[in-house]
Design brief:
6 helices; 80% helix; 0% strand; single chain; elongated; mainly alpha
Length: 166
Amino acid sequence: MTTAIFVGRPAIDRDKVGRWVWFFTASLFVVTALTGFAPRSLEILTGARRNPPLVVHVHAAIMGAWLALLFFQTLLVAMRRTAFHRTLGLAAFVLGPALLASLIAVTIWRFGERVLLSQTEVGARVLLNQGRSIVCFAIFFSWAMWVRKTDSETHKRMILLATVGP
């Protein structure tokens, strides 16, 4: 008879858990980027690796800003601070196109570098792989911005998909 008391009552608050799952996912993106690029960055700082051109540093800064924005945006939603989330989200209208431009610029630089080293086959693979990332980012980012006011579920999924590629 005691089970009748719990009928119709959810075991967990799915909305609350869902909000924190998105934050956790964004946090994993940040941790992955730091884990993947920190060793290379340290090698550059210590002189063990050559310093890449300015275009790479600009791309790294923009991508870092993008990941920071994603992290804080998901944190704001998890904490139910959606008004500030919407205000801060306006930065995506600057960062998104800037990230797209930096992706294109780094891809062109990497392709040119491979061609100069007579590695045209490697350069072609760079173009193909990075080209896919560029197209996917542009599509998913545009889609996310288009539906941000009308479909929050699609908005958050498209933002995460846009972030996966680069």
